[in-house]
Amino acid sequence: MNRLILLVVFVCSFGINAQELALSDYADGTPTIGTDRSNSTLSDEYVAQLDGLSEKNLAKQLRKKGAAEKLIEKGDEYFDKMWYAEAARVFDLVLEKTEAEHTPSLLTKAGDSHYYSGNLEKSYTWYNELYQRYQDDMREDTFYKFTQTLKGTGKYRRAAALTKLLRQKRDEPLKELKKLNVPTWKGAVNVKIKNLVINSQYSDFSPMFHGSDIVYASAKDSSIFTTRKYKWTNQPFLDLYVSKRKNDEGDLYGSRKFSKNINTKYHEASLAFSPDQKTIYFTRNNYGKRLKRGKNGINHLKIYRSQYVDGDWTKAVELPFNSENFSTGHPTISKDGSKMYFVSDRPGGFGQTDIYVVDILENGTFSEPKNLGRTVNTDAKEMFPYVTENALYFSSDRAMGFGGLDIYKSEGSDEMFSVGINLGSPINSNRDDFSYIIDQEGTKGYFASNRKGGKGDDDIYSFAYTLNQNEITGTVQQATTGEPIEEAKLTLLDKHGSIVNEALANTEGKYSFRYLDPTSDYSVLAQKEGFEKDSLAVTTKENEKIEVSQYLREHRNTESEEEVFEPNNVYFDFDSFEITQGSAEELDKLVSVLNKNKELTLKIESHTDAIGPNAYNKYLSDRRAKSTRDYIISKGVDPSRIISAVGYGEERLLNDCANGTPCAPEQHRLNRRSEFYIIQD
């Protein structure tokens, strides 16, 4: 996850640094005046040698008087230079191998170092310890990065809870927490993604169409000589590469450097082409003969332009709306070539980085930059825009996405775009997903991600959308007469017994469930008052319609009883499906009723509060239903007497404590429950 792109300022509070290649003041490896610690008592070589020592010899070295203090000083030196990969190694040695006090400063820098260099698992270790020890003293930016590591390591529920605490601490409205139910990509299309062979062990990202080719940024080391390293991540500097598209599936081959006139010894990354493909706009460090720094000592990013003349690219020149004192990058060009959209942390924006637009005038000049406004930009980071004729795609780390950067779509054109909608899974993951581009047909494209399972740091993935024709259609009829049963209730359940969808049969007894997962096991429960229920197992195929029929028999006893049985205090602790002692005592009463009345059967329905993502709550309630069932069975009740054990998540709250509504803990607790239906034939 050593991703590289919108530098220093673009990374200040979100460290997963590829898309944010945080070009620090030390991008060339040379510290600025006033921060050089050349008198450090430890050399870089000494620190490197520690990694090669045996555990015994390492322990001996670290027991020497003052060793921990000197290592902390060296780690601070690396951290100040933004050499985060090196700093992380040193801080780990101190925290794991010495008796040094785990101070707030040390834990914060250790967590930050791993966060910025892309190791979220290790970052979580130190942030979590910091939170456990010094929660009240944590800075807000550190608290925020902690929530990002929680999402990035799959701990969504805890991330949601801490995000709520942070918003309360800032005295911000909680209404945005209604976005906890992040959409997954279920609907009219299926998505197939593929990791590409051109990816390296380093950061590969920002693909862009260029005729039949794809131009992209990479930190791969293609030099036969020793390559200079970017100390933030210990990776080579970024260059632009070009590959050819191999087939309709989006495979790429034959990577080579794009142009010696554009690639330099510093970073070149996110790019765009004019409609005629003869002008390239790209992101580069601000430099002349050497790196230039703004008033704050930071080397910022700028957008450069080059023309294709006589078979080669001309020397790049910077655009007039760049600045020495803030960053400008990530260009994308409208399909008619009249507008450029880009990212900047210039003053006056809504968040850390915002998306702006300028007009490209006929004489090659530009209008004044205009912020795209609140429908697109938030108080977080918006990055990597890509514009089509009727939509703007971009990445953002705004509240309660899947984790890290997520890809969003805003419909519209010119300067008027709708509120961004999360593209969901599998395009987005719990890591960083960004630099999304899509073809004119709107069916194929590429994006970058540092999700697990990749070949290196950031990888480029191809994607293809296909129509989702997976459907179950059926009819419900009377078993004796064959007459259709109007308004029969159909419930679609997945293989875990969780409800996927519900429907009512029409006047002809027909129904359908559309947009289902391929080659997946479902069951369809058909029921109608006065009839016996019928459950049918169905397995979908690959993009096909499955037709089924169900026949219901009239109930032998239309006066059968079905009543709700609600023992007291069958509640669950927050984020838990374990049966508490108090709940066990109440369940024992239920078991006693069942043992005395052998003709009774039971349905179990379990629920959650509205804190956290809806998908997770559905999973948690299902676990609660299963643990309730298992407890009752463990007390001697025949499993066949338990008709169902289903979790409904937060769908059936007992009060008004929905997402974003402030409620006391006891009010939320009332929703964390199991309910029981005793049925007597």
From TrEMBL:
Residue ranges the record marks as coiled coil: none
Signal peptide positions on this chain: 1-18
CDD domains linked: OmpA_C-like (cd07185)
Matches recorded under Pfam families: CarboxypepD_reg, OmpA, PD40
Hydrolase keyword on record: no
Keyword Glycosyltransferase applies: no
Keyword field: Cell outer membrane, Membrane, Signal
InterPro entries, per the entry: 6-blade_b-propeller_TolB-like, Bact_OuterMem_StrucFunc, CarboxyPept-like_regulatory, OMP_bac, OmpA-like, OmpA-like_sf, TPR-like_helical_dom_sf, WD40
Cell compartments where the protein resides: Cell outer membrane
Domain OmpA-like: 559-681
Name the UniProt record assigns to this protein: OmpA family protein
Upper classification of the organism: Bacteria, Pseudomonadati, Bacteroidota, Flavobacteriia, Flavobacteriales
